[in-house]
Amino acid sequence: MKKLESTITNMVVVLVGVALITGGILAYVNNVTEEPIKLQSEKTLADGIKAVMGGVDLSVAKDDTVKQTISGKEVVFVIHETVDADNKPLGAAVESTTGGFGGDFKILVGFDTEGKILGYTILQHAETPGLGAKADKWFQKDGKGCVIGKNPASDKLTVKKDGGDIDAITASTITSRAFLLAVNQAYQAYKSLPVDAQTGATASHKK
To answer: What's the rounded Cα separation, in Å, for the pair 130 and 47?
Structure first.
């Protein structure tokens, strides 16, 4: 077989061919993995909602998207209103994102119908290695900065350095502020929902 001459034309043809083959392989891999990744993400969210709502037998009655302008920037919250097996309102799990030390800090926090915090989990963070893991434990029921059972409407959910009631993560005030800001903003988004005529999920916590 005659060897191709090293001309510009031949080089372009080879590069285009390689690019097409590589693109085809990537498209195939993406097509194969897209559905499993989507299903896994849905399962992770469903498990997270159950966990932050206290692990009871529940279902999501309604998903709401709330957009608010905070410090000149549009922030989107996803609110999963939940009910028990008897269709009784349990409250909602709220996805809330704010800026942390290294980037976006996203949490899922559960509120009962009165606005008390039932639980939370960290969905995404770009903090210094180790700090994200600390935040996932620090503010839990047995953590030093426990927020479980507290209500943002009546409790000062800011770090003590800022006049609040919450102990910041040791040597990580910025991460602590980001977490608590996400919790407070999640509550405000939840409180902004109108009373749902079907589930009444937000009726009892409206002021």
So the answer is: 23
Q: Which residue has the tokens 């559960």?
A: 110
Q: Give alpha helix (H) positions in 145-196.
A: 173-191
Both structure tokens of 19: 């690019």
What is the tens place of the pLDDT at every residue in 2-50?
A: 555 567 776 777 787 787 788 777 776 666 665 665 566 667 788 889 9
Answer yes or no: are the C-beta atoms of 182 and 109 closer than 8 Å.
yes
Virtual torsion, Cα 203, 205, 42, 149, nearest 10 deg: -150
Q: How far is CA 192 from CA 4, 5, 8, 65, 131, in A?
A: 69, 70, 63, 11, 31
Name the token pair of 184: 């407070």
Residue 107: how many CB atoms within 10 A of its CB? 26
Is the pLDDT confidence value at 193 over 80?
A: yes
Kindly state the helix (H) or strand (E) to which residue 24 belongs, with its residue range: helix 8-52
Q: Would you say 22 and 14 are in contact if contact means Cβ atoms under 8 Å apart?
A: no
User: How far is it, in rounded angstroms, from Cα 112 to Cα 149?
Assistant: 9
